[in-house]
Description:
The complex is a heterotrimer of chains A (about 650), B (about 160) and C (about 280).
Chain A (H helix, E strand, L loop, with lengths): L3 E6 L11 H9 L4 E7 L5 H13 L4 E6 L2 H14 L7 E5 L1 H5 L5 H20 L7 E4 L3 E5 L3 H12 L3 E5 L14 E2 L4 E2 H14 L3 E4 L2 E9 L2 E8 L14 H5 L5 E2 L8 E2 L2 E2 L11 E2 L5 H5 L4 H5 L12 E7 L1 E4 L3 E3 L16 E3 H8 L20 E8 L15 H15 L4 E6 L9 H10 L4 E4 L2 E7 L2 E8 L4 E7 L1 E6 L1 E3 L3 H8 L26 E3 L9 H19 L3 E4 L4 E3 L9 H5 L5 E7 L5 E8 L9 H5 L5 E3 L4 H10 L2
Parallel strand pairs in A: 1-2, 1-3, 3-4, 6-7, 6-18, 7-10, 18-29, 20-27, 21-22, 21-27, 22-23
Antiparallel strand pairs in A: 5-30, 8-9, 11-12, 12-17, 13-14, 15-16, 19-28, 24-25, 25-26, 31-34, 32-33
Helix pairs in contact in A: 1-5, 2-3, 5-18, 6-7, 6-15, 11-12, 12-13
Chain B lengths: L1 H20 L9 E6 L3 H10 L8 E6 L7 H9 L4 E6 L10 H18 L7 E5 L5 H18 L9
Parallel strand pairs in B: 1-2, 1-3, 3-4
Helix pairs in contact in B: 2-5
Chain C lengths: L1 H13 L3 E9 L6 E6 L8 E2 L15 H8 L3 E6 L1 H12 L8 E7 L10 E4 L4 H20 L4 H13 L6 H5 L24 H14 L9 H5 L6 H16 L27
Parallel strand pairs in C: 1-4, 4-5, 5-6
Antiparallel strand pairs in C: 1-2, 1-3
Helix pairs in contact in C: 4-9
Amino acid sequence: MARIGVFICHCGENISRTVDVVKAAEAAATFRGVVHSVEYKYMCSSPGQNLIKEAIKEKKLTGVVVAACSPKMHEPTFRRACHEAGLNPYFCEISNVREQCSWVHEDKTVGTAKTIDLIRLMVEKTRKNHELQHIKVPITKKALVIGAGIAGIQAALDIADGGQEVILVEKDPSIGGHMAQLSETVPTLDCSQCILTPKMVDASRHENITLYTWSEVIDVKGYMGNFEVTIRKNPRYVKEDVCTGCGLCYQKCPQKKIQGKFDAGVGLRRAIYVPSPQAVPNVPVIDKDHCTKLLKDRCGVCQKVCPTGAIDYEMKEEIITEKIGAIVVATGYDLIPNNFYGEYGQGKYADVIDGLQFERILSASGPTAGEIKRPSDGKIAESVVFIKCVGSRDPAKGIPYCSKICCMYAGKQAMLYKHKVHHGQAYVFYMDIRAGGKGYEEFIQKGIEEEGTTYIRGRVARIFKKGDKLIVRGMDTLSGQKIELAVDLVVLASAMIPNKGVKELYQKLSISYDTYGWVSESHPKLKPIETSVAGIYLAGACQAPKDIPDAVSQASGAASKVLALLSKDELEKEPLVATIDKNICAGCNMCVQACPYQAIELKPIKDRKGNVLRYASEVNHGLCAGCGVCVAVCPSKAPDLAGITEEQIYAEIVSLG
Amino acid sequence: MKQNAERKTQDAERNAQDAGRRTQDAFEPKIVAFLCNWCSYAGADLAGTSRKQYAPNIRIIKVPCTGRLDPIVLIKSFEMGADGILVSGCHPGDCHYRSGNYLARRRWMIFNEMLQFIGLEQDRVQFSWVSAAEGGKFVDVVNKITEDIKKLGPAKEYNAS
Amino acid sequence: MLDKLKQRIKELLTNKIVNCVIGYEQGDNPTLARPVYITKPNEAERLVYNEYCIPILAKYILKPEVRSLKLEAGKIGIIAKPSDVRALVGLIQEKQIIREDVYIIAVGRKEDFPKIYDEIIETPLSELDAKRKTQDAEQLKQIAEFEKKTPEEKRAFWQREFDKCIKCYACRQICPLCYCRVCIADKNQPQWIPPMPNSGGNFSWNMIRAYHLAGRCIDCGECERACPVDIPLMMLNKKIQQMIKEKFDYQAGLDPEVPPPLSTYQEDDKEKFII
Lengths: 657, 161, 275
């Protein structure tokens, strides 16, 4: 028999002003199963809570209904009080008579009658409550960081410094990401390599970090605290443990004219190469699409010159599986392809390049050693046009969003250009200048006032070649005049888009992404680091266009989330999860298909000899979030949801009859 | 025993109320509202904290997600004497459980039309998306359904009692 | 045609491609055909195939005696009309049978079948099928007419029909896709569907039966034929089929690979009634 106590709160006067609490308490005392019914000025106060605790002990209550404010306010408070008095907290329910009644109905008769109904409803629910215990799930104390750009490196370093093991996976031969390609950074103009390289080295040397470069995550199973990840290590054809990084191989390689990814197509590399002199690990990789030894079994020069015998043409890919507790996704960004706007001639004219290519030209370690030589003929560019919002903010081309970093880097590139070509002319075509950020607006102003960058508000309509000049034709929308400039070089601030192949990865991770392919955060304001899957966090530009400081701070945020998770031995979960009765389940698979968390699996039911008799669904409580979709789709109601069971919903409905 | 007797008098009172409820002029409908915990229930809370007044006929039953609700729950509510039903959840794309409301939407697309096919008045069961920020919309939805049901009168046909 | 069928069944059994075939034999009088299990080649002589072969055979594939046969090696053969094949697709889709465990011998016109059968014995459109097609068209017209009525008239109609229900559950027993181990109508904790054949209980049962088959009903019409009090169950079923086709562009029993429409969704499902 249920022994339920009803506790009605006046909430000062918030409830009692429009509800006759005494009458409600008297009515509640007559409900089936109610053995104790009182009202009190402030239930949530410590004397109020003591009232509940004492009643639980004295009246041997098996259930508590508190008629007060919304459960979102004090459900935890009252449940804790019950727990302290020795009653399982899940026997405590809140009847929301403040937000749902006293605050929204002025008439005291109406308010009192409704309050009585609401209490009856909750008493009926409470009569059907069950004792519930927190679900405990063990946690594997190891993190995986996918992507080793600045965000991934920062997240890995912070987690590793926090004392947890990290696996850092990078699909390129070196870590560092796009930041390693940059020249100098906004707004302080410190050299990108100089601030990044120490972090790259730290990441490679940290005792808690295992680095897999030239590797990809190919499969992810499991759930928060218990992921199982499969990583494919692509063959480098160079043994990492034997190579000393002397560089003889790539000095001697006869295949010289390959456009590499690191120099963004403006510089050339060999078939065996390290992406940059600062690459980490400093181990070359053979480009199997260009190496004649691998393609046609001719050459083999690198093997001959290698003093340590590190070259291995027979190397095969390696598959590694790892048990992981938490994952950070830091898969970064890419730029739109160069044929995005045909009218700008990118791809057709060598001297129309994108921002990353110009970064390589600006970079002291780049293909031109920092001289502003234009790609077509190596001539110093006497005039440069920078065009912003190339692709970005163009809904007609499918990219309505702002790429956020272009305003700053275009301004910076114009400034750096002027530092190198003092007499040169720099023009920036812009739609708006968005310089929100510490020191950013000042930086842009400095470019205009001190460095003499000419800003033209308007769009460029067309670019074409005339002699050895590029003619840039556009509109100055402030003066309303057509503009035509003859320049040596055009730099496009191309829109940022998600990296290639990330959607497939996100599907393996089961995390959601938006229509463009940026990772969706769990809540746009309050959970910007969490993905839609518990235990998977995000960092950097995989979420949306982001600059370096934002990416780094988010990476540290993700690391702190990971550390908080991995600091526990067991994960405690609210027990409000679904369980499926195998005897009832017919194994129709509908809940498996409908479950938003892939938490349900069909499992065989076998006889004593091991023959499979049939299949029935089983919920993985580690993955279950407690939505109850499985209960609704099941025609025979084999699943039930703890906390809001079928019987409870039924009882609540019946109580209203 | 004493409790029993009290309950009986109370039942009698309620029956009397019920009888009153069923006469057209003083008809105060019973409306059951199934609200999802994360959006619509919070929207109702916001209506409360904003002290917005609305029709008192509604009785809220909290569910984690509209995806938790089987149509049988609605049928049962009618059987138990509800005159109207409101089901409200998160807007498409905002579901706390990723896709619970999308699944629910399909369900209601079919069930709602089934109800109309068997002749239930269109406004007896209403569905809405109310976010945690839409206290005002919640009030409007509740007032609308209350008005609609008052016009329709009691739902006698499927009431088992 | 029948000789060819018998011959083929004999071969299948002799060559141990199947260890049982579900087909029809003559019933107690010439206008009745009843399901039969054929397990030996010489028993194939008992088979009949005529316009009285109405009962759906796919239902029998789930019977315990057939399931136990499946535990041993060999497939279960089934002589299948279009509705049988669609039911089998549904059962495969819902993991009640494994495609490899059944051997489907389709009988009829090629265009009437989803392409999952193992072999087909082609026949011209039978009189029965032709009659069924005109009946279908009539019923659709009837539905369209019915929908023009006022809610009061519709309600009166269905109330009168549902009031006839005696809760015998024959509609459920005969349905090839009603295979739950425990039917919701038989559960009593909680008792969602009142067991009494009164207005409340009848309404709940008939609505929920139809709803549970939404997107799954393969239009065989067995429930309506089984109903001893002639409730026009197919009117409701067909209406739901129409809705599913119109809203989700889906027809049950055609493709075993796609999930049933109510256990999945599209982000851009279109509706107009949610405020």
